[in-house]
Specification:
The chain is mainly α. It is built from 2 helices and 2 strands; from the N terminus they run ββαα. Strand 1 and strand 2 (about 15) form a beta hairpin.
């Protein structure tokens, strides 16, 4: 029997719990607590990723707004300079080529990350299979050890 004080009420009272103690094992205790931690991490992952996605999207829109605002203010300034259209065409061609290269690098980076994730998933699956094989062998060893003792 275990006595517990109820701290949630305004009055002090004693709650008596008659809880029979269930048999526990080391592995069971470790498994239950590990599962609790993993489930907590899993429950937080979507909101964390969504938070980073929202943050990054807001950051990119902020940069886009800055260039939009600056271009409106500077348009009048540069229009008054009467820059040669051939120079502007060359500048546009240059920035277009830089943009194409940058977008290509983004595609390569995204592809690398996707392949890296696939590699890691494969590695985890391989490790998992190896571990299960090892655990099966260990369980058989323990079973034989127990049979020899009896």
């Amino acid at each position: 029997m275990r006595e517990m004080i109820n701290k949630n009420s305004n009055q002090s009272s004693v709650i008596v719990k008659d809880k029979s103690i269930s048999k526990k094992s080391v592995c069971g205790i470790m498994k239950d607590n590990t599962i609790d931690v993993i489930q907590k991490i899993e429950s937080e992952v979507p909101s964390i990723f969504q938070g980073y996605t929202d943050l990054y999207t807001r950051y990119l829109h902020s940069i886009q707004d800055i260039f939009g605002t600056c271009s409106l203010a500077e348009k009048q300034y540069f229009d008054k300079m009467n820059i040669d259209q051939n120079v502007l065409k060359m500048y546009d061609d240059y920035l277009e080529s830089v943009t194409i290269i940058t977008k290509s690098q983004i595609d390569l980076s995204a592809d690398f990350v996707k392949r890296y994730i696939q590699f890691r998933l494969f590695s985890i699956d391989s490790w998992d299979k190896h571990t299960h094989t090892w655990i099966d062998m260990y369980a058989k060893f323990l079973a034989r050890s127990l049979q020899k003792e009896n």
